Amino acid sequence: MGKITGFLEYVRQEASSRPPEERVRDWKPFHLPVRAPVRREQGGRCMNCGVPYCQSGIQWEGSAFGCPLHNLIPEWNDMIYAGNPNHALSRLLKTNNFPEFTGRVCPAPCERACICGMYGDSVTVRDNELYIIEDAFARKAVHRRRPPQWSGKKVAVVGSGPAGLSAADQLNHRGHSVTVVEREEHCGGLLTYGIPNMKLPKDVVRRRIELMTDEGVSFVTGMDAADRSVAHRLLADYDAVVLCCGAERPRPLGLDCEGVSGICYGTEFLKAAVERQQFGKDPSAPTAEGRDVVIVGTGDTASDCAATALRQGCRSVTQLVRRPAADYLKNGALPMDYAHEEAIAVFGHDPRRFGVQVKELAAENGVLTALATTDGDIIPCGLLIAATGFAGCAGDVCEAFGVAYDRTVNTANGGFSTNVEKVFAAGDMRRGQSLVVWAIAEGRSVAAEVDAYLSGYTNLVRVV
Known about the structure:
Elements: H1 6-9, H2 20-23, H3 36-44, E1 58-60, E2 63-65, H4 73-82, H5 85-93, H6 99-105, H7 109-112, H8 125-138, E3 154-158, H9 162-173, E4 177-182, H10 190-193, H11 202-215, E5 218-221, H12 228-237, E6 240-243, E7 249-250, E8 263-265, H13 266-279, E9 292-296, H14 300-312, E10 316-321, H15 338-347, E11 352-354, E12 358-364, E13 367-373, E14 378-380, E15 383-386, E16 390-392, H16 395-401, E17 423-425, H17 428-431, H18 436-455
Parallel strand pairs: 3-4, 3-6, 4-5, 6-17, 8-15, 9-10, 9-15, 10-11
Antiparallel strand pairs: 1-2, 7-16, 12-13, 13-14
Helix pairs in contact: 3-4, 3-8, 4-5, 4-8, 5-8, 6-8, 9-18, 12-16, 13-14, 14-15
């Protein structure tokens, strides 16, 4: 413990953000870096608890507490305070393959489990994590790690989201020849196509892909494993196949939308926005420019849709939340996400309406114009975005490989193997819709099982 009385002497100081009225005009990251002396103090606030619940990674009454990766949080907090960045980096990378992702988009269940937060403010674990890895990249302290020898075994990983990338990274470091198959033009899955640039810059994702390529992982894009011929070739050419295709099947709105344009799902809208903004594409999904936008749902996807609509120049944005506001109160106040701050800066009011849903749609010549709510009023609407979560994994890849599934892929009890020999599944495809940090944990765990299958033993650690 670097500073025994640090939690008494230093107050919590989070990374600051650019003013909402400024950042809403561009797609640049909205968080600002924190100076090293401030971060050192924040590391010194860690209490080095006898039982560090921050790294427990447990489920309790339907909520997750602590880091699913079991990050060695007190150790690298101590190293931040002690001024030993290389040791902090080594402890961080021991359990987390991609702290540059989790340090930006993880909701930090570790901080909810922080003992320091029981009677005050928790330690800034997520900000500290991001500081360690970005400082290391800036100092060129992140070096490629190629295995000392190759096993001669070949593994195909289908899907390049956080689960697929972490599985590939672990298996590559164990000496297996890994090929990641991605149906899209660019790698990253959810990290690239599902999270806006201001929240997770795409050059950060590319940087990691380039490092993994340098370490020996092969990436093949534009190849759809839902094609049975592709699936059969992967089964024939590889010693193991790991399916990490995410939870793609959206939960339907439950409305009669047939023949009405101007309606899309949240992930569809976000993917189209990334393709326009980052890759110069012209996707079929509508843009929010000049439209009255209504978003159904809550959570990160809904917020990202609202923030994206604002940057595209929507005429208005309204977010309909099914549950009452009382369900979201924290210490008597309603928490604000970054998108809500931006909507207030642009339109002068919180875009959320609680305890209300869509009752029916109104359209002219097949074009959505308005909607009626369960409160009995009419809202102008030219674009309705359903950010209502996911009903499970898409079945096309499962069917191509002959893998049994219902809502998610059916795997062995407590394991990752499917009903098809040498085929494994992990991530949201197996677990259901979840967080990036849980996907990384799933990828690390399936890698341990695949490694044992290929080698007869493993020294990789299963964390779930």
